[in-house]
Amino acid sequence: MIKGIFFDAAGVLYRRASPTEEFALGLLRKSGFSVEVPSEDLTHLLALHAQASQGLVKHEAYWDQFLMMHGVADPYLRQTFITRIIDYSNAVLPVPGAREALQGLKQRSYLLGIITDTMYPLEWKRRRLEKVGVAEYIDVIACSTVIGVHKPDPGMYLNALQQAHLSPDESAFVGHLAIELRGAQDAGMVTVAVPSWNRDYHVNFDPDAVADYYCNSILDLLNVPIFNGNPIEANGGA
Question: Among 110, 136, 188, 212, which residue's beta carbon has the most beta carbons within 10 A?
């Protein structure tokens, strides 16, 4: 019996017009800076991003290095760009059907949680969920900058289960990235693939995504057979 359902956040419960890095590259392009970096710098940047996602490097420091590697030498201009990038990252919009899906699952007495990679503080994640109208349904959040690891590390998923006092076989993970779905499977969770969203349209889950169930939309979660029960009633009203 599934008792808890855990979600990826960006693209599943809230959306942006495009990934934040694409917005940053657009800023650079419009200002005449290169959008390419040497391969050795790109390797360093990817490592720095991983460190930021683990809370080892502050998000401002990551974006500062990102901009320097793209040729933005002026520190004042870098700070101006960083402010715009962060504002964009926080300007999230709701995913159609997400609030209704979470409300329906909560009415069936499921515990609901978030398992999220981010380079930003946990409180920012909470504010984004509040902005799109789903925070009231979320019981636990496993945040990479707090835990010190990021998906697909099993520690991310297991931290969420520990907070919820659930075992892996009592839990499901809902996401769209193949690597994150594999991480949930490695942790012993049931997996559900859903399409991700940009500003005005949804794109399908990764073509190589392997999951136990597949949905055409997040609202379709209400039709997944394993989510049709009531975990409290199944436990005799406990």
Answer: 110
